[in-house]
Write the structure tokens for this entry.
Amino acid sequence: MTGEQAERLKRRFRENGTEWRQIDERVDLTRFIMMAKLEKPYAHVHPGETAFTFADGLIVETGAIILSGSRPGARRAAYLAETHFALISENAVFETLGDFLSLTRPPWHKLCGPALTLICGPSRTADIEKTLVMGAHGPRRLIVGTAPPELIKEMLDEGRA
Amino acid sequence: MKASLSIRLAARAAARDGQLRENLRRSTELSLEKRRKLVEDIPNYSRHRGNLAASRRESVRRMDSLLAEAVERLESAGIRCHLAGDAEEAQRLVLEICGDLRRIVKGKSMVSEEIGLNAALEAAGKEVVETDLGEYIVQLRGEAPSHITAPALHLNRRQIAELFERELGMEYSEDPETLTAAAREHLRDRFLKAQVGITGANFVVAETGTIILVENEGNIGLASTLPPVHIAVTGIEKILPRLIDADAALRLLPVNGTGQRSTAYVSFISSPAPEMSGPQEVHVIFLDNGRRRLAERGDARALACIRCGACLNVCPLFRRVGGHGYGSVYPGPIGILTTPFLIEGAEGHGLENSLADACSLCEACAEVCPAEIPLPDLIRGAREEKAAAAPALGRITWKIFGRLCAHPTLFRVAGWFARRLPASVLRGLTPAWSLGRALPRSSRYRFRTLLAERRRR
């Protein structure tokens, strides 16, 4: 992600109500995961709990995170949780939705699994007098962490060992 | 003529309701203002609009072949497809899929309103609950939604607070946050116990066999990931040829619908969920219910609609009377065109005729429509059809009036007589037109005299 992209992403995240943690060091990554109270990664989330997901990428134009259903239960958890923590590799950045769609077109099932969701901020409604309320049926908070891919890989390797 | 009169009365009552008008004015203006800012801000907006319009035209032109392609792709990925010719068949299909399963949660879907799905499910003993906040509110009130994207647009917070106090047994509160939280609490339990989730589908992609769901609340996400069975009900005109067509569609739908750059959630569903992580059974019901007939007998261009509701928000008439005044689940300019074909019982009751009148031809809707549907042209067409079928007496009167207008001397003579006739006689000459219109008293000053005087000065 370039500095200019990061600036625009920051603006979109603010508009959408997404909280953003830019993670550069291992200790920050550990802290992010501790915050998410990661016990059973993306397996079963009960209502009111936090969910932790590995998201697949970001779209700069809208500030959407891309969450594929290739990891079973991730999407369900992302709707059920009170707070959704999503960790994303900072090199998985698409400029527009069109860029993402044209890339994924031919091997759609292989790349995106049975289902995929683009998420722009917490769940919301404006059905009562057009007043915006965050946390309609889904999470009240969406916290996105972006980290260098090698840092995420390192953490995953350690987790396996 | 009976049904047409009842629509006029509904519209008149709505127009007199000051509360309703204030709610309508505020919320439509807010959506339009947010929309306007985004349209200015989004680079190449008109190019995206052109792309969407072209793709929607292709969808309508190739409706049957795209349907076949979508069904093939969806089925090959394990999604079961069903074709419903009319509302009754669609209701039967949903009931068949449900079988013994009783507890149903619903996401917002105009098509399910169109086919009267809730009533049919309840009649069969199912427990069905709307989960979109606005839809939940109107369901509790026993009403129909009044706007395509904002179902409870016609209500203010006091009315909703009273409803929740009565129906949910909660403490009276007008705070939207407290009201939303109460609905969330009540519905969460229904979600967790639900056996079937029913949603619409904003689009289906033929190329990849993908169902696209667009929403803000997360209720459609829950309805399509928690229950073991997910049923999506959609119209046969909603099929996009290629996945890349979703680019323009997903950009323009939220901008024009709710004035958002993007909604909180956009889901792409391509097969049932693996390892019990979501519905093991996914069904799509493709509904005709008059769409092919509209393409043949009406103007097929109306089928390009993506149900964003922008034409409702700009319509001066809609902004006065609201959705209920139209007496159809599809109100506003687009509703004028689709209602006679899609809503059962509408045709043959004179409903389409009276709806064609519900337009001032101001053309604001044509300016905003993201699918570039020339709505005013189409409405004009519907009026011409109506005129051709109007009572002979009125038709003859108008023909004579047209002639008189072209001949100044004849006009002057006719005017002299007309001023001396009782109003009831004049009204009787144009029975259909006079319905719901007041005849002004003729002025003592004639326009021609005034004009001549001004010229002299």
Summary: Chain A touches chain B through 51 residues (CB under 8 Å). The helical segments of chain A are 3-16, 26-35, 74-80, 97-104, 108-112, 149-160.
